[in-house]
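Q: Here's a chain of 174 amino acids. Please give me its 3D structure as C-alpha cells.
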Amino acid sequence: MNTPNKLTLLRVILVPVVCVLIGVGLYPWAAAVFALGALTDFLDGYLARRDGLITVFGKFLDPVADKLLVLTAMIMLTEKGLLPAWAVVIVAARELAVDGLRLVASGSGKVVAAKMPGKIKTTLQLLCVLSALLLKNHPVTLALAIAMAAMTVYSGALYFKELWKFVWEPKDEA
C-alpha cells in the first residue's frame, strides 16, 4: 500500500478518535486530531499527484474519508450545541446529492474533478469545525457556518449544472 493510501486510512482511523474527544468535551485535543486529519487530506492528494500514485482505492476512499471526518465532527458538534444543525443538514444533503450525481455520471464515463468552489467549500468546512472546537459559540463560528453553507450550496449547484444531463439523457445501451 502506498503512502497516500496509508494517509487516507489514517484519516479514517482518526474519525472515531475525533468522535470520542468531542463526546467527552476535550475540544482542544479534538481540534488537534481533526487538524491532523485535515492535513492528511491535503498531503495524500499532493503526494499521489506528485508521485503518480493515484489508485482506484485512493479515488474511492479519499472522498469517503473526508466526508466521514467532517460530518462526524459536525454531527458531534451539533449534539453539543456548538454548530447549528441547519448548516450540518445542508452539508450532508449536498454531499449525498453530489455523490449520487457523480455515481450516475460515472456510469456514462464522465468524471468530474474537484474545482475551486469545492476546494473553498472544503476549506470553509474545516475552518468551521476548528472554530467550533476552539472558539465554541463565538460569532466567528456562526459566520463561518453561514459562509460554509452558502459555498456548499453554490458548489453543489455547479456540480448539478454540469452533471444533470447525465441523469436525464438516455444512455445508449448498444
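Q: Can you summarize the key feature?
A: Residues 139-168 form the longest helix (30 residues).
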